[in-house]
Design goal:
The chain is mainly beta and 733 residues long. It has three helices and 63 strands. The strands form five sheets. The protein has a 24-stranded mixed sheet that branches.
Length: 733
């Protein structure tokens, strides 16, 4: 049997360390037909007979597609393997590299060993060796690679496998591993790291790499009585650690491990045995879901997050725009911290009906932190307060991430009492979901009135043309700022179009017109704190108009039927979204009476009064988050008294321009409108008075055509119209 000539020089490792790294196989298969000693430089190919090779000091062996039993080396040697295979399944190591040696394995090379695939050793002076494995496969019954202190291994797009009884890799002392886009798989653990007599600390860097222990931890630091130094493990983007027992990192034997995770999502536990130390640092939206057992410190930066799976305790938590998630709703957790610093967000949940809540308790808390508490449309059984945070000492400040927490019909605020913070609903702040549904129930009357308006703004000035039979079209827009009695204020912006046609009645004094109208409008509602609504209205109507040319008196009557398609969209305080929709109908009528009084020289004044009434069907529906809504019938009775003043300018050739100004006082008489959210009744009335002011112009031209435009403003106790605009076109035949 041929043994490496430097095997006895590795006595600097304790005997039990080598027992862990690579127990010698006592029974081996027959060796290759010959052992070839290489001095200087030699190249072998696929045509070269299969042998095992022993490299003398300073020698270089280049294998291009060759088949080899195994390779042993001396100091300062180089072994380059391009493709081909090493089959040392019945021998010791596939490649045994001594101090100062270099191995380069690439181009789909394959190494299979009965002991260790690639062994990287050092001499008594601490001079190690190095290996680069690219696009290749390495497997060993006692590990794909064993890396001594002072040695380094690089793996790129490669697979390194141990066996059911061995890890993929073992690192001792100050060994270094850099793996990119690779897979490292072992049985009891994927990667084992322990110390040696040098007392050095190992370094591991993983990028796009999976490390897996099939039956145990992904990474084990420390082994038996061999504690590791301060091991640094950097898990880079798109990497994963998979433990067959659910443990990502196990720190044992009084070892210390610092695990950094950058832009990777990990799931599993980090466990430090008694006397050992584990520290974690997550950054760049990295995520960890699992238990942290006996972890000394956790750092979360740049939206990195940790999700609890059970009650947990950590020595120190440092936040720099990090996130701690307490777990799924209804799985209430307690997190105990020795110290808390920096600034971050805690995602929590609470149930007022049972008094259960996630809970954060801290020894010394500093910094500024946000609480993102889960929202619900279900109504709490009691309007009590819930304890969320306690700190023994410190000057930390806590606030709610997105404002008051939406629970049922109301939103709950965070209240500090000494060093404790509570979720409190005593102020009865209406939730955005409730505000949205109240706004929808309230919007239908203003939608109806925006579609209607006065005779002049709907059809123009009919007196400008004696041909009274005709058709018309009108486009309009309105904005309303509404403050109902419930306190759920909102802004409504309406856009729509109406069209109609009319003709004189064939009997009577010939001054009566009767017509039909139809139209559509869309109203967007902007409610407080991210809630919104939309009302799509479709309508049909009949109208009649009487104009007496001699006296100037006129009468206008409209009856209109509407279908309303209503929808709510609410951004809740916990960042989720809820929606709901319903359909209802409305019917109403308007009567307007006035008189056009000539003042001479083309001037006129036109006093008028208008009375309108509408009733909107009630509705019951539910938002996605469980908020139950029940709206009663909405009624409106609106009276107006006002006057229009203007002047007619005769441009000749049958063309007339009529500018005018209009002022009125309106009063809403309906006072009994109401709606319920989760059986909480809210008054939704808009009763009160307001003043109105308008400007307009009507113009007849081209014999049969007339165009008109209006601008409106109104303001009152419950409703303000910052602007209203419409433009219409009429054709008489």
């Amino acid at each position: 049997m041929h043994l490496p000539n430097h095997f006895s020089n590795c006595s600097s490792l304790p005997a039990h360390a080598w027992a862990l790294l690579a127990p010698l196989a006592l029974a081996v298969s027959p060796l290759a037909s010959a052992t070839v000693t290489v001095g200087g430089e030699r190249t072998i190919t696929a045509e070269t007979p299969r042998n095992d090779y022993r490299l003398q000091e300073g020698a270089t062996l280049i294998a291009n597609g060759a088949s080899i039993d195994f390779v042993t080396t001396n100091q300062n040697t180089t072994f380059i393997m391009n493709g081909g295979q090493i089959d040392a399944s019945g021998s010791f190591d596939g490649v045994d590299l001594f101090s100062g040696g270099t191995t380069i394995v690439s181009d789909n090379a394959r190494i299979v060993a009965g002991n260790v695939g690639i062994r990287l050793s050092r001499n008594a002076a601490g001079v190690g060796s190095s290996a680069q494995v690219t696009d290749s496969y390495v497997q060993g019954a006692n590990g794909a690679a064993a890396v001594s202190s002072g040695s380094s291994l690089s793996a790129v797009r490669s697979t390194l496998e141990g066996s059911a009884r061995s890890p993929a890799l073992t690192l001792a002392g100050s060994a270094k591993l850099a793996a990119q886009d690779s897979v490292l798989t072992g049985g009891p653990t994927g990667l084992r790291i322990f110390g040696d007599s040098t007392g050095g600390a190992s370094e591991v860097t993983l990028v796009g790499t999976r490390v897996e222990g099939l039956t145990g931890p992904a990474i084990t630091v420390g082994s038996g009585t061999l504690p590791a130094g301060t091991t640094t493990i950097a898990v880079g983007p798109d990497s994963s650690l998979i433990g067959g027992n659910g443990v990502l990192l196990q720190v044992t034997a009084n070892s210390t491990a610092n695990l950094g995770v950058d832009a990777s999502q990990l799931q599993g536990d980090v466990v430090a045995d008694a006397g050992s130390t584990a520290n974690l640092a997550l950054e760049n939206q990295a995520g960890l879901t699992g238990r942290l057992v006996n972890v000394a410190g956790l750092s979360l930066a740049s939206r990195a997050s940790w999700s609890l799976v059970e009650d947990s305790e950590i020595g120190a938590l440092a936040m720099n725009d990090g996130v701690v998630r307490f777990g799924a709703p209804t799985e209430y957790r307690t997190l105990q911290l020795g110290t808390l610093s920096g600034s971050g967000t805690f995602v929590m949940d609470a149930d007022f009906s049972t008094g259960q809540t996630d809970f954060l308790t801290v020894g010394t808390a500093t910094g500024t932190h946000s609480l993102l508490v889960g929202s619900s449309g279900a109504e709490p059984s009691e309007q009590n307060s819930l304890h969320l945070v306690h700190a023994d000492a410190g000057d930390a400040r806590f606030s709610l991430a997105n404002g008051p927490v939406d629970l049922g019909a109301f939103s709950y605020e965070l209240v500090q009492r000494d060093n404790d913070w509570f979720l409190d609903g005593s102020r009865k702040v209406i939730s955005p979901g409730t505000a949205s549904v109240l706004a929808l129930f309230n919007a239908a009357p203003s939608v109806w009135y925006g579609e209607l308006s006065t005779l002049r703004s709907r059809m123009g000035e009919l007196r400008l043309d004696e041909r009274k039979s005709g058709g018309w079209i009108r486009a309009y827009g309105n904005k309303f700022d509404v403050s109902p009695a419930s306190g759920a204020a909102y802004t409504q912006v309406q856009q729509g179009v109406s069209l109609g046609a009319d003709a004189p009645l064939p009997y009577g004094d010939g001054q009566w017109l009767v017509g039909v109208m139809a139209g559509h409008s869309n109203s967007d509602l902007d409610v407080a704190r991210g809630a919104s609504g939309e009302v799509k209205s479709y309508y049909l109507g009949l109208y009649t108009t009487w104009l007496d040319a001699d006296s100037g008196y006129y009468f206008d009557g409209v009856a209109k039927f509407n279908r309303f398609d209503n929808s709510s969209k609410v951004n809740l305080s916990d960042g989720t979204r809820t929606e709901g929709d319903y359909r209802n109908h409305g019917v109403g009528a308007s009567l307007e009476f006035g008189r056009n009084i000539p003042l001479g020289n083309g001037y006129f004044v036109e006093p008028y009064t208008q009375w309108s009434a509408v009733e909107i069907q009630g509705a019951s529906y539910q938002l996605d988050n469980g908020l139950q809504v029940d709206g009663e019938r909405t009624r409106s009775l609106l009276g107006k008294v006002g006057a229009t003043a203007g002047r007619n300018f005769d441009l000749g050739a049958g063309q007339t321009v009529q500018p005018y100004v209009r002022a009125a006082v309106a009063h809403e008489f309906a006072t009994d409108n109401a709606a319920k959210a989760n059986d909480n009744r809210f008054s939704n009335e808009l009763a009160g008075s307001r003043g109105e002011l308008g400007l307009g112009v009507a113009m007849s031209f081209a014999e049969r055509w007339q165009v008109h435009a209006d601008l409106d403003y109104s303001n009152g106790e419950r409703i303000e119209q910052p602007w209203g605009a419409n433009i219409g076109l009429r054709y008489n035949w």
